[in-house]
Amino acid sequence: MLQEDLYYPHPLVQDILWASLHKVVEPILKCWPGKRLREKALLTTIQHIHYEDDNTRYVCIGPVNKVLNMLCCWVEDPNSEAFKLHLPRIYDYLWLAEDGMKMQGYNGSQLWDTAFAVQAILSSSLIEEYGPTLKKAHEYIKNSQVLEDCPDDLSYWYRHISKGAWPFSTADHGWPISDCTAEGLKAALLLSKTPPEIVGEPLNAKRLYDAVNVILSLQVISAPVHKNAVNY
């Protein structure tokens, strides 16, 4: 490991534990009955990996599991279609800085930035001046909304509804995020009150209702002492 990547040295106890797991525990798990349990666990794991890959168009939720998912697909079959589809999406996370290649913590903040930029412009007296910008932003907000839930039984895949939500970045990413959905909805509503000849046609009302439905479904009722408080 490069010293630049070693932010905190491993304690000796940690190194001993990892070595023990690798040298002792893993060989034991490869024997019966651990072998059968291990095979079942690996099968379930790779199924969940493929499910996320398919439903995020191989972007995955973030860079860490993007790399892990890609490695698992390579271990499963280095010539598989899944591994090949992973490769071009690496560039969603990479960028060049003055001191070399970096991997960002997300595939971007496109929707988040767009929603706030729209709200800022609409709160000013520069709406007509920034009309072309608002029209493009409006199109992006429309195009980045999630239009369908993930397929199959959501509870089996530990998923929540996502139809109507907005992600942090792009439609390809697709993970529903509460505050991004709220800000995307707010921007869409503000744009719907602006002349369409400036910003384009408003978002379909059904899609607005879908966004509200997602936000309501994500509400967390606080402890009884704060029973009237609701967070999203």
**What is the β-strand count?**
4
**Overall pLDDT score:** 92
Number of helical stretches of at least 4 residues:
9
Task: Quickly count the domains.
Answer: 2
Strand order of the largest sheet: 1-2
Separation, N- and C-terminal Cα atoms: 41 Å
**Cα radius of gyration in angstroms:** 23 Å
Helix content: 40-55%
Q: Could you give the order of the helices and strands?
A: HHHHEEHHHHHEE
State the low-pLDDT regions, or none.
225-232
The shape is elongated
Query: How would a crystallographer describe the biggest sheet?
Result: 2 strands, antiparallel
What percentage of the residues does DSSP assign to strands (E)?
5-15%
Structural class: mainly alpha
In short:
This is Cycloartenol synthase-like. The protein is mainly α.
Structure characterization notes:
The chain is mostly helical and 232 residues long. It has helices at 12-29, 34-55, 63-76, 81-86, 110-122, 131-144, 178-192, 196-199, 205-217; strands at residues 94-97, 100-103, 220-221, 230-231. The chain has 2 domains: 41-106, no CATH class; 110-218, no CATH class. Strand 1 and strand 2 form a beta hairpin. The chain is elongated and about 70 Å long.
Outline the secondary-structure elements.
Layout: H1 12-29, H2 34-55, H3 63-76, H4 81-86, E1 94-97, E2 100-103, H5 110-122, H6 131-144, H7 178-192, H8 196-199, H9 205-217, E3 220-221, E4 230-231
Antiparallel strand pairs: 1-2, 3-4
Helix pairs in contact: 2-3, 5-6, 5-7, 6-7, 7-9
Protein name: Cycloartenol synthase-like
GO biological process, one term: triterpenoid biosynthetic process
GO molecular function, one term: oxidosqualene cyclase activity
